[in-house]
Amino acid sequence: MNDQNNKPKESPKSIPGGAAARPSGLRRVLAKKWVTPAAFMAAAAIIVTLMWLYRGEQTDQTTTTPDTEVSQGDETQTKPADDTIAVVTGDEDLQWPVLNYDDLEVALHYYDEKGTNEEKQAALVSTSDNKFLAHTGVDLTKPDNSTFDVVAALSGKVSLVTNHPTNGQTVEITHDNGLVTVYQSLSDVTVKQGDEVKQGTQFAKAGRNDLESEEGIHLHFEIRQDGKVLNPNDYIKR
């Protein structure tokens, strides 16, 4: 009896693995029911934040939209070119595409952003569906509404000959330094794509088109450089 009471108490047997067998603090936390939804929400918040920051960086890197080249008659209005654009054409000076400019009248002026409100309104073209377009060139006509010769404003290569559904017969001539002269509302066109023409060479006559039918017989003339529309009055010496 005394022997049993005097026996030393046996220490508890250790379990292989020691402390690893007991649930760690992390596992106890993960065992909670609210942990998984909270972790998911935190991850989603991080993803949304990263996407927002990425979009912000993309916006900062975005440059301004370049001016769009739009032929007269399209519904999108063309933004005028910057006045600092230089028309460099070798030894030739840009000229009006007619033989006797003083014999003609300007039926419709170029839409100039620097003009007065009255001048801007007078340089709008109305379409059949009651829309208004900024006039991208200068329209020339004779007082008696008769036809007249159309000549190349500069030496160059014919890059387009077409019959546009609203702008009428059209010719485009490409010159140096990205410069293009555009001639619309033509008749009796005598050139084809690929032809080389010299400045002052007669290649068509003034005609009619559907977009500006109220003007009768006239020539619509444009100047573009690198796809940007220029005001002919700023670059042609009289």
Keywords:
238 residues; alpha+beta; ten-stranded antiparallel β-sheet; two-stranded antiparallel sheet; 12 strands
Q: Could you walk me through the main structural features you see in this protein, from its secondary elements to its overall organization?
A:
There is one protein chain. This protein is of the alpha+beta class. Helix content is 18%, strand content 25%. Strands 1, 4, 5, 6, 7, 8, 9, 10, 11 and 12 form a ten-stranded antiparallel β-sheet that branches. It has a two-stranded antiparallel ribbon with strand order 2-3. A hairpin with a 2-residue loop joins strand 11 and strand 12. The protein starts with a helix and ends in an 8-residue tail after the last strand.
Average pLDDT, rounded to a whole number, is 77
Helix residue percentage:
10-25%
| Rg | 38 Å
Task: Tell me the overall shape.
Answer: globular
Low-pLDDT parts are 1-23, 54-71, 73-86
Number of helices: 4
Secondary-structure-based class equals: alpha+beta
What is the β-strand count?
A: 12
Q: What's the arrangement of secondary structure elements?
A:
Blueprint (H helix, E strand, L loop, with lengths): L1 H5 L18 H6 L4 H27 L43 E4 L8 H6 L1 E3 L5 E3 L3 E4 L7 E3 L4 E9 L3 E7 L4 E9 L8 E2 L4 E5 L12 E7 L2 E3 L8
Task: Briefly say what this structure is.
The chain is α+β, with helices and mostly antiparallel strands. A hairpin with a 5-residue loop joins strand 2 and strand 3.
